[in-house]
Amino acid sequence: MNPELLTVGEVAAIFRCHHETVRKMIANKQLAAIKFGNRWLIDAHQLPRPNVVGADELMHANT
To answer: Between the CA atoms of 26, 27, 28 and 29, what dihedral angle is there, to the nearest 10 degrees?
Structure first.
């Protein structure tokens, strides 16, 4: 299986947050990422998936 690698900007768009929030999540080990050159790359399959029910509470719990 080939991982789909996403940039910080792409993950920020998925989470609907600022790119600095994604970088802080990487720094705090809340989001696994690898450094490739000067870019952070995140495996799309490792992104946290909110539950369909209660997704709003999950998203606000991490703020």
So the answer is: 50
Instruction: Kindly report, residue by residue over 20-55, the tens digit of the pLDDT.
Output: 999 999 999 999 999 999 999 999 988 887 655 555
Answer CATH for 5-61 from 3.90.105, 1.10.3470, 3.90.1530, 2.40.50: 3.90.105
Which secondary structure element, helix H or strand E, spans residue 11, and what is its range? helix 8-15
What HEC string does 17-41 produce? Answer: CCHHHHHHHHHCCCCCCEEECCEEE
Please check whether residue 22 is in contact with residue 15, taking contact to mean a CB–CB distance below 8 angstroms: yes
